[in-house]
Amino acid sequence: MTSELERQARAFAQELQKTLNGTVCRHVRIAAVLRPRSEAGPVFTLGHGLTRIKPTQPEAFPLRVDNRRPRAWMNLSFQLRLDDEGSHLAVHSSYCGIFADEDLETCLCQFDYERGKDKYTSAHVQVYGTSPALEALNGRADQKRTLDKLHIPVGGKRFRPCIEDVIEFLITERLVEAHEGWEQRVEEGRVRYRRGQLKAAMRRHPDVVEEYLRDRQRKEKRD
User: Fold this and answer.
1) Among 41, 51, 156, 203, fewest CB within 10 Å belongs to which?
2) How many CB atoms within 10 Å of residue 182?
């Protein structure tokens, strides 16, 4: 099982590396390293700067396409395992943080996914800043949450944002510079991601697939 997981994890790491270096980065290396002693079974961690000696703490990398000083940094991590059938790659958790500094002290936002989370939605985004509305809604003196403590839902397990969505957000909001042709690279990756998610949904809900096919057949007969 580990060999199949390793093959798929390394292939995913290469796709991720190619996407980043073709859009908002240069010379970023994404490694896939087996995580030691995981309760979830064999798990590979994906990230920048990982080695067998340092298998669990990815390093941040600059978002830049030339030699100019970067305006933003990304800290990225994926925990990957095989699904319950032992056939397909599954994301156990993921994290993508956008920062204004290399020391990761000033965060703009972070996109998180934690499979099986029960206290709040498994896929969410946290935004750092101030909010007069939240201050008013906090109400009680003992309820003084800051904006980044809110877990804003973003599509759930199956329809959460992909890295291409984050990249497009950074470029279109003029937070980073991009390579020429980034649009095609983003769209190719997003299509690949959504097809994979759709196939996973079909495997988990064959009754819905059968219902769709029956409805389509009835429509074709009427036409």
Assistant:
1) 51
2) 19
